[in-house]
TrEMBL record:
Listed cofactors: Fe(2+)
Oxidoreductase keyword on record: yes
Family annotation (InterPro entries): Phytyl_CoA_dOase-like
Name of the protein described by the UniProt record: Phytanoyl-CoA dioxygenase
Lineage: Bacteria, Pseudomonadati, Pseudomonadota, Betaproteobacteria, Burkholderiales
SUPFAM superfamilies: Clavaminate synthase-like
Domain of life of the organism encoding this protein: Bacteria
Organism listed in the record: Bordetella genomosp. 8
Keywords associated with the record: Dioxygenase, Oxidoreductase
Length: 258
């Protein structure tokens, strides 16, 4: 495991709402997680989420349609295998987030906590949104880690992000009923034009804020793209009772002793 985020990287995360950290996960551990994810995907080990169930643009019309068995996410990565849990609670992740929050971080098992897939042909595109749109916490200050298990580019469905959008106050009228940014509005088109799509090499990690606007296109390659995604908040941030955000027990993280 590499060192925790530097002060300069933390500044970038705070200022633009995301930062890419190269080679955060050593090759041997990255390859082990990739092989594990591929095996569980091939075996369709539950719990999973199917593209057809979300009905995003480009997804199969139903589970009975062509491509209907295409998996979008392998859910609850933390509980799937101790190796996924070890990554989610890795000392370098914990210390990075402790430096960001200024206190002990906590892993949410209710959101993300998955192996995210993007399949050729039947992998859907994801419109512009903020993750916080469907989360319920008493503070909107959460950070996710996106671990690339292979190369990620705009060509194979890599993320697009709008720098600085996490601190923007955007009116409700700029979003549709599902809380996706309305691309038909000129002011939103101008915002989207500022987006960037950072290329990720295997083992790179993207740290990004829950209010950062992001989207992802179709996978135009011939290989499935695999990423491991987890979300964290500070110890003094809490999920609201009786919401999805409070539906699973959380995991406090402790940095490695110095």
């Amino acid at each position: 495991m590499s060192s925790p985020l530097t002060a300069a990287q933390l500044d970038i995360l705070r200022e633009q709402g995301f930062v890419v950290v190269p080679d955060f996960l050593p090759a041997a551990q990255r390859d082990e997680l990739r092989a594990l994810a591929q095996a569980q995907l091939e075996q369709v080990i539950a719990p999973v989420e199917y593209e057809a169930d979300l009905a995003y643009p480009g997804a199969p019309a139903s589970r009975q349609a062509e491509g209907g068995g295409t998996v979008r996410r392998l859910l609850d990565a933390y509980a799937r295998d101790p190796r996924f849990a070890a990554w989610a609670t890795a000392p370098a992740v914990a210390e990075s987030l402790q430096r960001y929050f200024g206190q002990a971080p906590v892993l949410s098992r209710a959101h993300h906590n998955c192996v995210m897939t993007k399949h050729p042909r039947f992998g859907s595109l994801t419109g512009w949104h903020r993750d916080i749109r469907y989360w319920s916490f008493d503070r909107q200050d959460l950070v996710s880690t996106w671990l690339a298990l292979g190369r990620e580019t705009a060509h194979n469905g890599g993320l697009w992000l709008v720098p600085g959008s996490h601190v923007m106050d955007l009116s409700a009228e700029r979003f549709d009923d599902a809380q996706f940014l309305r691309e038909d509005l000129p002011e939103n088109a101008a915002l989207i034009a500022r987006a960037v799509s950072p290329e990720l090499a295997p083992g790179d990690v993207l740290f990004f804020h829950c209010r950062t606007l992001h989207a992802a296109g179709r996978n135009q390659s011939d290989q499935v793209k695999l990423s491991v995604v987890h979300t964290y908040h500070a110890a003094d941030t809490h999920p609201l009772p009786n919401t999805r955000s409070a539906s699973k027990p959380e995991v406090p993280l402790a940095p490695a002793p110095r």
